[in-house]
């Protein structure tokens, strides 16, 4: 879909939605607060795996990257700015023109598509990096989904997957805290029963043919009102890095 | 020459070039716009203005490669003596004495003359391939959008960038064009500033005398010279400044005292009206304010340039970190981090210097007794004294990497 195929009223609506997605104090505030921390993890993992220098211009040039569940492009845009060739996929059709309009405003070239990981894998698409952030807790069949992520990677490719742990604390923080008390997320955003523990995720990654190489926690500090990466505390939000074995 | 990825800096004084150099060192192209021609700025002769650079500021200059060029002309500040006095009476028996020997980091700071600092900044900018200088042009318009920012110059040119930074002083046009209002007040005081030559060596000691009409700071320059910042009520200051050199010195002598022997003028004389001026926001749409454009404080503790350089270090660090994550450097979420880091700090500084000035610019005998005892107490407690010394050296708080002497 290009801008010329959308009528003017639609464009205005999508522009408003893009502004909403990118307003750090608006509806997506929790994502914006967490984003620097997620980006720190992602960029350092990619730089480490592919031997890139993050202070050089366009350090990710030559890497093809897939952002699953791209939404308004909060991860796709930074990856494109760092030089990666980015495909942003989202199963929600209305997110695509929103993300496209914002990328255009930002002067970035990103290939946004209304599709799923399974469909891309079936089409034989291949990537150096697959970003799978806060998606796995929403899918019906995690193993089938992670297998699709595996199939989307070139040999030696990097898969970064973040999700939410399943324990009493994560119920208190992610469901009661984020949805009921703080109303950061709409009620019903998450189904606690679908949350996955780090050990379960690592086992699933292995079954899908991926080799887990790292796991870290994303921890919210209510005193500093900010997120940080923790090597020990994976009790609520956490992230993993895994590799597709080279050949 | 101009790229849409540039960071546009308005104001080529001191903070502007410092920011440009820090960003260029981190690999970002920068365009610096100044209303004056470069030759005018570079060939300024000795005019008596000087800065008390805190140790943290000196580390920043060193990290961005400017310190080398001014090091030989810089006078280390080894001790600071603070006392309460009245003209002709000499200092009160209670005074604060801060000696750099009590902290391990070295001198508390350095006195550097304006002419040396400006020239070093301009030379360093000339040498940087990533810095474009647009001199002799005034900004007449600016326009920030979600995708970028542009400024219009008085010669009809338009420059595009990713972020606009206003380093254009307390009357910042960049801030007012963005609709950012200011809060502040006039102290009813004016500072008389000049360089003084004296018979005896100053031994690297800075003095601050608190006198009822306002404070007098005597700050050591190289050789047998000192820079003075002499605050008086505005009407009196203007009267003194209108006197000829002999009359001016006649007024200064009883305040200055005779501890450095005979004194004479060693440069031009300046006056600066004193006031507090805080921008209500340090950021806007693709816009950040730095230095006096964000916060003009009372120069009572010599913290103006130091606070500006702290903004520079914080902004450069926030932008470099954001860029390495792939974030949009001019994005609201990135600029908010800069504002959060600096706004509380500078408001505290503004209020502290304000309260300090009100307390000490007073002849009420009870207040005088109270502050003399207070000074005596601080002086008697080594831990408290060391805290003051570190504060004066700029070594407290959440120190940006550049002020730890590291690169961004």
Question: Summary?
Answer:
The complex is a heterodimer of chains A (247) and B (408). An 8-stranded mixed beta sheet of chain A has the order 3-2-1-4-5-8-6-7.
- In CATH terms, the superfamily of chain A is Vaccinia Virus protein VP39
Radius of gyration of chain A: 18 Å
Largest sheet of chain B: 9 strands, mixed
| Cα distance spanning the termini of chain B | 25 Å
β-strand percent of chain B reads: 25-35%
Count of individual domains of chain A: 1
Strands of the widest sheet of chain A, in order across it, are 3-2-1-4-5-8-6-7
Oligomeric organization of the protein chains: heterodimer
| Overall shape of chain B | globular
Uncertain runs of chain B:
none
Care to describe what's here?
The complex is a heterodimer of chains A (247) and B (408). Chain A is α/β, with parallel strands linked by helices. Chain A has one domain (3-243): Vaccinia Virus protein VP39 (Rossmann fold), CATH 3.40.50.150. Chain A is built from eight helices and eight strands, in the order ααβαβαβαβαβααβββ. Chain A has an eight-stranded mixed β-sheet. In chain A, a hairpin with a 4-residue loop joins strand 6 (211-221) and strand 7 (226-230). In chain A, helix 1 (8-21) packs across helix 4 (95-105). The longest helix of chain A has 22 residues, at 29-50. The model of chain A is unreliable at 1-6 (pLDDT under 50). Chain B is of the alpha+beta class. Chain B has a domain at 7-44 and 111-183 and 276-361 and 400-404: FAD/NAD(P)-binding domain. Chain B is built from twelve helices and 21 strands. Chain B has helices at 15-25, 38-42, 55-63, 67-71, 114-127, 173-177, 234-242, 245-256, 304-325, 332-360, 365-380, 382-392, and strands at 7-10, 30-34, 50-54, 75-77, 79-86, 90-99, 109-113, 131-135, 139-144, 149-153, 158-161, 163-166, 182-198, 205-211, 214-221, 225-233, 263-265, 270-279, 283-284, 287-289, 295-296. In chain B, strands 5, 6, 13, 14, 15, 16, 17, 18 and 21 form a nine-stranded mixed β-sheet that branches. A six-stranded mixed β-sheet of chain B has the order 8-2-1-12-20-19. In chain B, a hairpin with a 2-residue loop joins strand 14 (205-211) and strand 15. In chain B, helix 1 packs parallel to helix 5 (114-127) and helix 9 runs antiparallel to helix 10. The longest helix of chain B has 29 residues, at 332-360. Classes of the chains: A alpha/beta (247), B alpha+beta (408). Chain A binds chain B through residues 19, 22-24, 32, 35-36, 39-40, 43, 54-57, 77-82, 102, 105-107, and chain B through 4, 26-27, 145-148, 320-322, 324-328, 331-333, 336.
